[in-house]
Amino acid sequence: MDGWRAAAACQEVDPDLFFPVGTGSPALAQEEEAKRVCRRCSVREPCLRSALAQPHPPSGVWGGLTEAERRSPERRARRRADDRR
């Protein structure tokens, strides 16, 4: 297990929060609540890097972003630029 996981704010909440089902209002509210947990997390960046490094993007909210947000063209371009540094 990655060392950063032990310090993750999500360790304090139900893991199901980070995996909303559906696209309606309840799922969107759940997604926003998961993102609130991520915003207060001290290891948000390592979490996001871990999700982005997976050969098959994991579902759910990781590092404060949904799977769709992590797949966005803008996000991929920024990631490539960061990798070149």
TrEMBL record:
<keyword id="KW-0408">Iron</keyword>
<comment type="function">
    <text>Acts as a transcriptional regulator. Probably redox-responsive. The apo- but not holo-form probably binds DNA.</text>
</comment>
<keyword id="KW-1015">Disulfide bond</keyword>
<protein>
    <recommendedName>
        <fullName>Transcriptional regulator WhiB</fullName>
    </recommendedName>
</protein>
<keyword id="KW-0805">Transcription regulation</keyword>
<dbReference type="Pfam" id="PF02467">
    <property type="entry name" value="Whib"/>
</dbReference>
<keyword id="KW-0411">Iron-sulfur</keyword>
<feature type="binding site">
    <location>
        <position position="10"/>
    </location>
    <ligand>
        <name>[4Fe-4S] cluster</name>
    </ligand>
</feature>
<keyword id="KW-0479">Metal-binding</keyword>
<feature type="binding site">
    <location>
        <position position="47"/>
    </location>
    <ligand>
        <name>[4Fe-4S] cluster</name>
    </ligand>
</feature>
<keyword id="KW-0004">4Fe-4S</keyword>
<keyword id="KW-0804">Transcription</keyword>
<keyword id="KW-0238">DNA-binding</keyword>
<feature type="region of interest" description="Disordered">
    <location>
        <begin position="51"/>
        <end position="85"/>
    </location>
</feature>
<feature type="binding site">
    <location>
        <position position="38"/>
    </location>
    <ligand>
        <name>[4Fe-4S] cluster</name>
    </ligand>
</feature>
<keyword id="KW-0963">Cytoplasm</keyword>
<feature type="domain" description="4Fe-4S Wbl-type">
    <location>
        <begin position="9"/>
        <end position="72"/>
    </location>
</feature>
<feature type="binding site">
    <location>
        <position position="41"/>
    </location>
    <ligand>
        <name>[4Fe-4S] cluster</name>
    </ligand>
</feature>
<feature type="compositionally biased region" description="Basic and acidic residues">
    <location>
        <begin position="67"/>
        <end position="85"/>
    </location>
</feature>
<dbReference type="InterPro" id="IPR003482">
    <property type="entry name" value="Whib"/>
</dbReference>
<dbReference type="InterPro" id="IPR034768">
    <property type="entry name" value="4FE4S_WBL"/>
</dbReference>
<comment type="similarity">
    <text>Belongs to the WhiB family.</text>
</comment>
